[in-house]
Every structure is written in structure tokens, then in C-alpha cells.
Design goal:
Length: about 210
């Protein structure tokens, strides 16, 4: 009877192949080229400090902030019988300060104004003014402005733009409280307004004047 031999594989048969596989890994590890994950489990990354929160943009800052003290007169008085009249009077900017430091020397000016006043009855009674004014700053420098808008309690001041002198090109906004003066002869006619409030001069984009 012929005996059949079963080929057995000894562990030594795998050794050359195993050595060949381990040599490149050992070489790369020795040269520092093997990824750390292939050698050992990665250490936990240290916690990062939270990035500082950026400060909120405060928006534009005005060149000047002033107390408004104005008087406009209508001739003849405006009302149902007279819808358009001549405007005279003054627009005073008092106790000015310069938040952005553009014009700290400018503290006071009174513009003497001339223009046109109008009355509209529909849908609600409305008084509006448009004109120009010239004045002299406390520094002795002259300036001028253009104005147009409504006279209404708690409303924005009429649009104003500095047309010459210091801060030429600046736009002006703010809030106003106009108080009507009724004509002594015609109780239904308004002879003018006394106006108080606050205004800001802006070089470029306008912000909220009430923030200052």
C-alpha cells in the first residue's frame, strides 16, 4: 500500500515574506515618514480657545452734533386761504460738539434763511418749507445750506445740505419739535413756527442722530 504524504507548511516558510513586508514600514517609521496613525493611536487634540467675538460695527459717526433752535416766518400767514408764502427767519445750531473729531472748533452758527412755505390740506394739514440760508460760524468762517421738508412734530428735520464753508457737502439730519405761531389777525392762519431739536452733520452715510 502506497502512503500519500500531505505537504505541511512550516512557520519558517512565511518568515521571508513577513520580513519583506515589515522592512518598508520599519524604514519609513525610522525616518519619520510613516503616518502616526500607523504606529500608534492619535492623541486627543487639545481644546482650542474660543475665538474672540468681533465688536459690533458702531456705524457712521457724525462730524457735529448740535442743538437746534430755529424760527421760520410765513408772509402772508399760511392756511386754507393762502397755500404758499414767503419764508424768512433763522436756523441756529448751538452748543455743537464733534464726536469724530473732524471739526471740534465749530460750536455755533445761525443761518439766516429765505425761501418758500407751502400748506397742504389733503389728506392732513401739512406745512413744508424750502430755501437756502447763510451764516457765520463762531470761528468767523461763513457757510451756507439748502433745506427742504415738512414741519411736523417728532418728524425728521427737513433735508439739509451744507453747500459752502466748513463741512461743505455734509448732510444734516435729526429730530425736531415745531410749535406753530398763529396769526393774530386770522386765527386760522399760521404765521410761523418755533422749532427746537437736535441735528447731526454727516460726511457721507448718515446714521441715527438720536444715538448721540
Amino acid at each position: 500500500m502506497k502512503t500519500t504524504r500531505t505537504a505541511t507548511t512550516t512557520p519558517s516558510a512565511h518568515r521571508p515574506r513577513l520580513r519583506r513586508a515589515l522592512l518598508p514600514a520599519a524604514l519609513l517609521a525610522g525616518l519619520g515618514l510613516l503616518a502616526p496613525a500607523a504606529v500608534a493611536a492619535p492623541a486627543a487634540a487639545p481644546a482650542r480657545a474660543a475665538a474672540p467675538t468681533a465688536a459690533a460695527d458702531p456705524g457712521p459717526v457724525p462730524d457735529l452734533v448740535c442743538r437746534l433752535d430755529a424760527e421760520v416766518n410765513f408772509s402772508p400767514p399760511l392756511g386754507l386761504l393762502t397755500r404758499e408764502a414767503q419764508v424768512t427767519g433763522h436756523i441756529g445750531y448751538r452748543d455743537c460738539r464733534s464726536p469724530d473729531g473732524a471739526a471740534p472748533e465749530l460750536t455755533d452758527i445761525v443761518f439766516h434763511v429765505f425761501g418758500t412755505g407751502r400748506f397742504g390740506a389733503v389728506p392732513v394739514p401739512t406745512f413744508s418749507v424750502e430755501g437756502t440760508g447763510r451764516g457765520t460760524w463762531n470761528t468767523g468762517e461763513e457757510g451756507s445750506l439748502y433745506f427742504k421738508g415738512e414741519l411736523k412734530k417728532g418728524s425728521p428735520v427737513p433735508d439739509r445740505t451744507v453747500t459752502s464753508g466748513p463741512l461743505a457737502g455734509d448732510g444734516i439730519n435729526g429730530l425736531q419739535i415745531p410749535v406753530p405761531r398763529f396769526d393774530k389777525i386770522d386765527p386760522n392762519g399760521v404765521a410761523g413756527f418755533d422749532v427746537v431739536g437736535q441735528v447731526c452733520f454727516w460726511n457721507g452715510e448718515k446714521g441715527r442722530c438720536t444715538a448721540y
